[in-house]
Amino acid sequence: MNILYEDNHLLIVNKAAGEIVQGDKTGDATLADAAKAYIKETCGKPGAVFLGVPHRLDRPVSGVCVLCRTSKALTRMNNLFRTSNVQKTYHAIVCAEPPAKEGELIHYLSRNERQNKSYAHATERPGTKRAHLSYHLIARSDRYWLLEVQLHTGRHHQIRCQLAAMGCPVKGDLKYGAPRSNPDGSICLHARRIAFEHPVSHQQIDITAPYPTLPIWRVFE
User: Is the pTM of this model over 0.90?
Assistant: First the structure.
């Protein structure tokens, strides 16, 4: 577990691609379980360890993930996320050049539970949720483009779906139109930075997560 920040209330980690934050039908080991074991060992806590998860990253996505060590922190972090008082910055390596060097994307997303996939629509329709992000191009290589993305809403697979709708699927993301997978099964979407007011101490927290070890990320360092 790659810890980026910790105190009595928060544990912020750099999640590896392929790591699952909370349990699902696969039954695979989770980041939450690893964090509980870490807290239990380092703090010598008897009995059950509390750990709250105020937000999640998709399994193939890497990057900064906030976990809460107290119920007070969890309640307040949930509120910060719900009221959009958390600044979330993502980096995405995409398979096509964006139509403009920077822009805003607004779609209305519908979710197919069976496929575990979201679909982007240009106009609102029953059952859709408004999705808003902004992006700008920060680097390019011979075949790929690196975008910095600011999330203004938090929808299911939002970045993956909206960038694909723009014609720029995330590298490795077969579900949303990438032509081939990454060798490790990851997609090149990384939760690069998170910034917010600490839910208890009220100090400003600003955390940047280093890139994954997949060689393509080295091109853009």
Answer: yes
How confident is the prediction along the chain (221 residues), in pLDDT tens digits per residue? Answer: 899 999 999 999 999 999 999 866 667 789 999 999 999 888 777 778 899 999 889 999 999 999 999 999 999 999 999 998 999 999 999 999 999 999 999 999 999 999 999 999 999 999 999 999 999 999 999 999 999 999 999 899 999 999 999 999 999 999 999 999 999 999 999 999 999 999 999 999 999 999 999 999 999 98
Instruction: Report how far residue 177's alpha carbon sits from residue 164's, in angstroms, rounded to the nearest whole number.
Output: 7
- The sign of the dihedral angle between the CA atoms of 100, 170, 132, 130 is positive
Q: Which uninterrupted H or E stretch holds 25?
A: none
In the residue annotation, 58 being an active-site residue is answered as yes
- Name the CA dihedral angle for 192, 34, 21, 82, rounded to a multiple of 10 degrees: -70
Give the H or E element holding residue 60: none
Catalytic residue among 58, 142, 173, 184: 58
